[in-house]
Give the backbone structure.
Amino acid sequence: MKKHFRNFVLAGSILYLFSNCTVSYINTDTLMQNYEKKINHTTLLGKVLFKTDQRKKDTYDHVQVFLNENDVERDFEVTAYGSYTPLVIPLIRPERPRLEKYLLWKGARKARKLHADGVIIDNKNEFRVIKFK
């Protein structure tokens, strides 16, 4: 019993060490490319869903995604703060690809749920939902 417990504690500590790896940077071009790919190339059983998924099309048409506050050319007010922290399984599912693939999409979806006009990405997993004045 002690041997199993010791192995379990050792495995848990190794997983904990690998889960604390940080993401140093994410390229904004990659973020935008993955956002466009997520919108236009999502398939289910070989069919493109963009033509039939009205909620996704509505989100893409009405929510603007900004990577910098200076890119917003109109006055706005912040309606909510949000974050996207993906489930990370060390060595199997690293954090960086998950953030690159889904950060903009999660922010845009949350903005649409709140009936907002846009979202500003602040850092690697935090965003602000905005409404134009």
Notes: The helical segments are 2-19, 28-40, 54-62, 95-113. The longest helix spans residues 95-113.
